[in-house]
Design a protein that fits this description.
Length: 317
């Protein structure tokens, strides 16, 4: 009689009936770039007259340089100054709009699933909410009028290989913001939001004037922005894989948008903060549970002089 094994490799009997594939009850989440832009919104309606369809924020101006120069002339003993009209204000209007997204799970799925369904639905819906808010903010941030492009390119459509982000572009951006009178976000540093691929271009610079090791903050860790990678040339940088990019360079080259921000660059008006919504169940038997998010808000650039956009390609692949 031939020698036989009772094993998993042998078909039939114990191997087929008792040894089955196992499932891990812990679900791993997908790779997930986190949104970061909203932490830099710092202007909101302070004393609205009432809840209306929109909120108009007033931006007060200062007297012109011409009036300053004129005031340097000494007064005559018997002469008076001419009155000058107070500078007009400019307005930024925020018109909140409703946004939302939802999933619906069936009772049958919930009753038969090996893991709780609702918590996982809530997690992915919350992630969707954060990313949508990040995109709404960037829809406004790309409208800023202060733009520098890699290699000094005159327009987005001519950007091509080699037009990468450089330390000199950062120095130029900081110079522009300071010349505009824009305030640093924490009294010392401006904030920079860049894609990791663009960060690679900046950090791989060598020689005098290139990127150096990030400054260490010692025990004052509360000064760190979420996701910060370091400080360079007066800018504290945060990498964000969701930073806007498009194939609108020369020969459809991918152009990345980076942002350097001072205080009061961005404003928001919020009627209802984005939040998770569960239900209500609307079917007759109570089998369908909606899980979604809802928000009622608007974003705008408040001080254009406090925002610089950088457009570059990247050597990272």
């Amino acid at each position: 009689m031939a020698f036989e094994y009772t094993s998993i490799a042998t078909t039939g009997g114990w191997s087929t009936n008792t040894v089955k594939p196992a499932w891990d009850l812990l679900f791993r989440t997908a790779l997930n770039p986190m949104p970061v832009c909203r932490q830099f919104v710092d202007v909101r309606p302070g004393r609205p007259t009432h809840s209306g369809v929109s909120s108009t924020l007033q931006l007060t101006a200062n007297h012109s340089e011409a009036t300053v120069t004129a005031a340097k002339t000494p007064l005559g003993e018997e002469s008076d100054v001419d009155a000058t009209k107070h500078p007009a204000t400019t307005s930024v209007t925020l018109t909140p709009k409703e946004y939302g997204f939802a999933e619906v799970r069936t009772l049958k799925l919930s009753n038969r699933s090996m893991v709780p369904v609702e918590p996982e639905m809530a997690r992915v819906v919350a992630d969707h909410c954060g990313k949508t808010i990040d995109e709404l903010l960037q829809d406004q941030m790309v409208l800023g009028t202060q733009v520098y492009r890699g290699g000094g390119a005159a327009s987005t459509g001519v950007l091509t290989t080699g037009n990468t982000l450089t330390s000199d572009m950062i120095r130029l951006s900081v110079t522009k913001l300071r010349a505009n009178g824009a305030d640093a976000r924490d009294g010392q540093f401006f904030a920079g939001i860049i894609h990791p691929n663009v960060s690679y271009d900046l950090r791989k610079e060598s020689g005098s004037g290139g990127w150096r090791l990030p400054q260490e903050y010692g025990q004052t860790q509360s000064r760190l922005y979420k996701g910060e990678i370091g400080e360079w040339e007066g800018v504290r940088f945060i990498e964000n894989p969701r930073t806007r990019k498009a194939n609108d360079g020369a020969s459809s080259a991918t152009v990345y948008r980076s942002y350097i921000l001072g205080r009061e660059a961005l404003a928001e008006a919020v009627v209802e903060e984005p939040n998770l919504k569960f239900g209500p169940v609307v079917d007759r038997l109570g089998r369908f549970l909606p899980v979604g998010w809802y928000g009622d808000l608007d974003f705008k650039i408040f001080r254009d002089q406090a925002l610089v956009r950088l457009e570059t390609v990247t050597a990272a692949s």
